[in-house]
Amino acid sequence: MQLLDNINTLLGDDLKRVLRPGARLKVAASCFSMYAFEALKVELEKIEEFDFIFTEPTFVANEVTDKIRKERKEFHIPKLDRERSLYGSEFEIQLRNKLTQRAVAKECAEWIRRKAKFKSNRTKAPMQQFACVQAGGTDTAYMPLHGFTAVDLG
User: Fold this and answer.
1) Residue ranges making up the domain that contains 96
2) Could you say which of 52, 75, 91, 140 has the lowest number of CB atoms within 10 Å?
3) Residue 67 lies in a domain
């Protein structure tokens, strides 16, 4: 067992080390950011499969509507923040300011179509956040994990 503190030993560097051709990466986290994809782009292109589970209900089809719902107004809507983190969280503002968002989004979307599957935990039950790499008969688990963002990778 090795402890990663994201200061001296970074999660992103360790993922780069264990992600080999044919590997499978499974992640359960609160958010996914295309900038995490950009940071691991070379390694993620080599993997066979990427499975992601949003640990909270996010991008749930029956909750999406264009009609304005009559509900109590809230000042902070966490679900909206989780969905917005797809194109960068508030901690990835420097990456957004590089104005490469469109190019990164296109690459990420193309990769998602080929290799990724996304699901959402529809229940209100809490779910542990983790990442697991299955490569060549060796399994590597990372936990706890907050999100799959460039900031969380270190």
Assistant:
1) 20-60+75-153
2) 75
3) no
What pTM did the predictor assign?
Answer: 0.73
Cβ count near 48 (within 10 Å): 12
φ, ψ at 119 (rounded to 5°): -135, 165
| Residue predicted with more confidence, 68 or 3 | 3
CB 70 within 8 A of CB 45: no
Tell me the pLDDT tens digit for each residue of 25-79.
999 998 888 888 988 999 999 999 999 998 887 666 665 555 555 555 554 445 5
Residue 133 domain-assigned (yes or no): yes
Among the listed residues 35, 42, 38, the one whose alpha carbon sits nearest the alpha carbon of residue 89 = 35
DSSP 124: S
Domain count along the chain:
1
